[in-house]
């Protein structure tokens, strides 16, 4: 068997591993790092991997009509066909002949003659017969599910929550490329200085409309910049910066980041603390390896003197720290991650309604455990990177009902996002600002 290392072959290999449980972003990074590819080929592999995952339900629907019922197809063979379909449907500039020839060659190189004939037959049948028309599907939920490659249960949940029109806007957004955004590390520099440095390196820099101290960058990867290398900036989505803004941190505060890894929000908190005034953020994570990652990020961003990273399940905090110890607590809780669909497209296929209910119990458990550690008049912020009320508004409502010693606070951000909203909580949907979906709520301890 000949080893095929073309961009299409590498994409098929990465996708097969993702189908077996690997994270798409980590698997793609590993694939790109282990092969010497040109920038053009790296972008092509990235496009094939993310695009095929994003449109998986759509592509599988098209493919199933050309495979006999109950016919067993090896995972890598199926991925070879899905990648070919993705290119033919969504990549206008790729010639059909190149798509077919490379898919057939990959089948020949990696498999046997029977697999080559099978792939050839399927592709030629698709070419002859054409693809079914999704618009002809009568069931509106199924039609949307296949058009945008989103599970039916999630579409129904969103429609019940925000209505049909808003749901459609969200669906139209989530398969678009995610913006590249960075946060300036104000612990060591200024926004103006980093903007100048990035401009000098040839980046196109746009000030964020979502978060303070943040930019969107075009033209090159942010982690290739000198400013990244020396810790003057870090890569972080704009929406993910909002929970820390809601904490209203003061330089001498004692802050708890209850679910901290990999440390993006921990280092954002630390950048606003003053170690000489006693300011410190205690960052918890369940896994020691992830605690090491928090510490490494704090070192890279020159804020290690105000970060104390600890391996601890936040639900077990009671014996570790005194009551009413912290001025500010952030619970950026474990969640379904459905606000991150553009960055982690496989998330939409992995979660179920049962998962969402289970996560809510975890979220409430963490809030209940850490709430006793908030000082009188202190602030507790609860946030998630999902867009479902079950994990968001419902959790905030239940927490307040169970904890009368807290009152709801209006979430304030540096850019005064959605300032005309009637709720204290802040919901960011992917279509609002072309950023990740996020939820932020804030509570003040009365006594």
Mean pLDDT across every amino acid position: 95
Q: State the secondary-structure class.
A: alpha/beta
**Approximate shape:** globular
C-alpha termini separation: 71 Å
Name the helicity range.
40-55%
Q: Work out the oligomeric state of the chains in this entry.
A: single chain
Tally of strands: 12
Report strand %: 5-15%
Catalogue the unreliable spans.
none
> What Rg, in angstroms, do the CA atoms define?
24 Å
Q: Treating each run of at least 4 consecutive H or I residues as one helix, how many helices?
A: 19
Describe the structure.
This protein has 447 residues and is α/β, with parallel strands linked by helices. It contains 19 helices and twelve strands. Strands 5, 6, 7, 8, 9, 10, 11 and 12 form an eight-stranded mixed sheet that branches. It starts with 6 loop residues before the first helix and ends with a strand. The model has no long low-confidence stretch (mean pLDDT 95).
Quick description:
This protein is an alpha/beta fold and 447 residues long. The chain contains 19 helices and twelve strands.
């Amino acid at each position: 068997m000949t080893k095929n290392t073309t961009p299409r072959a590498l994409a098929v290999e990465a996708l097969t591993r993702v189908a077996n449980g690997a994270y798409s972003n980590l698997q793609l990074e590993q694939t790109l790092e282990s092969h010497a590819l040109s920038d053009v080929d790296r972008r092509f592999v990235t496009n094939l991997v993310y695009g095929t995952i994003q449109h998986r339900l759509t592509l599988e629907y098209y493919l199933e009509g050309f495979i006999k019922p109950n016919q067993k197809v090896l995972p890598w063979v199926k991925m070879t066909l899905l990648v070919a379909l993705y290119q033919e449907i969504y990549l206008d500039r790729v010639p059909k002949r190149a798509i077919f020839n490379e898919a057939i060659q990959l089948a020949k190189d990696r498999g046997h003659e029977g697999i080559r004939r099978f792939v050839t037959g399927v592709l030629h049948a698709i070419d002859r017969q054409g693809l079914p028309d999704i618009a002809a599907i009568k069931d509106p939920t199924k039609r949307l599910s296949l058009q945008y490659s989103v599970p039916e249960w999630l579409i129904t949940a969103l429609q019940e929550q925000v209505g049909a029109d808003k749901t459609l806007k969200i669906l139209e957004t989530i398969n678009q490329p995610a913006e590249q955004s960075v946060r300036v590390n104000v612990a060591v520099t200024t926004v103006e200085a980093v903007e100048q440095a990035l401009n000098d390196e040839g980046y196109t820099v746009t000030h964020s409309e979502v978060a303070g101290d943040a930019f969107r960058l075009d033209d090159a990867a942010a982690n290739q910049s000198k400013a990244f290398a020396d810790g003057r900036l870090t890569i972080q989505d704009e929406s993910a910066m909002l929970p820390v803004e809601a904490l209203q941190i003061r330089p001498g505060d004692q802050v708890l980041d209850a679910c901290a890894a990999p440390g993006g929000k921990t280092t954002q908190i630390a950048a606003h603390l003053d170690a000489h005034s006693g300011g410190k953020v205690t960052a918890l994570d369940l896994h020691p390896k992830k605690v090491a990652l928090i510490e490494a990020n704090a070192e890279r961003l020159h804020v290690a003197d105000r970060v104390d990273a600890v391996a601890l399940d936040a639900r077990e905090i009671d014996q570790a720290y005194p009551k009413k110890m912290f001025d500010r607590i952030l619970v950026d809780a474990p969640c379904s991650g459905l606000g991150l669909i553009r960055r982690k497209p496989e998330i939409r296929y992995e979660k179920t309604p049962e998962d969402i209910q289970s996560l809510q119990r975890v979220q409430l458990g963490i809030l209940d455990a850490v709430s006793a550690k908030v000082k009188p008049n202190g602030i507790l912020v609860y946030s998630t990177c999902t867009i479902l009320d079950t994990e968001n508004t419902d959790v905030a409502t239940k927490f307040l009902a169970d904890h009368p010693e807290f009152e709801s606070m209006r979430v304030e951000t540096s850019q005064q996002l959605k300032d005309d909203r009637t709720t204290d909580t802040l919901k960011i949907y992917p279509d609002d600002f072309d950023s990740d979906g996020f939820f932020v709520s804030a509570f003040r301890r009365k006594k």
